[in-house]
Amino acid sequence: MSQDLADSFGLKKAQGALVSAIEPKSPADKAGIKPGDVILAVDGRAVENSIDLPRIIGESRPGTAVNLKVWRQGETRELRASLGEIPPEKIARADDGARTGSGKLGVAVRPLTEEERKQVAAEGGLLVEEVEGAAARAGVQPGDVILALNNQPVKSADQLRRLVDRSRGTVALLIQREGSTIYVPIRLG
Questions:
Q1: Which tens digits make up the pLDDT trace of 124-166?
Q2: Which domains does the chain have, with CATH numbers?
Q3: Do the Cβ atoms of 47 and 53 come closer than 8 Å?
Q4: What does pTM read for this prediction?
Q5: Which long-range contacts (CB under 8 A, 24 or more apart) does 62-68 make?
Q6: CA-CA distance, 80 to 33, in Å (whole number)?
Q7: Contact 126, 145 (CB under 8 A)
């Protein structure tokens, strides 16, 4: 959440995790969370930025009910969600396998849902859930969609891992962020 985005949503400071899409019939959908909501807290624990949310949620077991403080259309709302379990085919981490002798990319990604793919208008693509290391230093952010690495379209975390394993020096990551497509150079190492 940048200050510009916070201003546009009427938030005093840049904090929280902006919801870009909701998977139908997911726990978030059942709790009433909507795209455009900003999750400010989970069970009273502040969500300072989007990378905090998966960590906080991940500390609770599936089936646990959590209270969410959400900012929607200029006001705070309280929602209750029962946490579900993400099927293994829905999430894959590209950071562990992307570690090479030349460095690491430093992203945790998952495939796009069908709805997200329609929004992005791409056949493949991977949603960035967490960023660290080289990717973070280059400015990659959670919520970015990785479309290609070195002009090779990316459709799976395994494919991204293989492309990073074969790369040396600097790679060009094609990402989509808030409707814009940009190249981000990332120095591995």
A1: 889 998 888 888 888 999 999 999 888 889 988 888 988 988 8
A2: 3-82 (2.30.42.10), 88-187 (2.30.42.10)
A3: yes
A4: 0.51
A5: 66/42, 67/42, 67/43, 68/31, 68/33, 68/39, 68/41, 68/42
A6: 10
A7: yes
Enter the tokens of residue 50. 């989007």
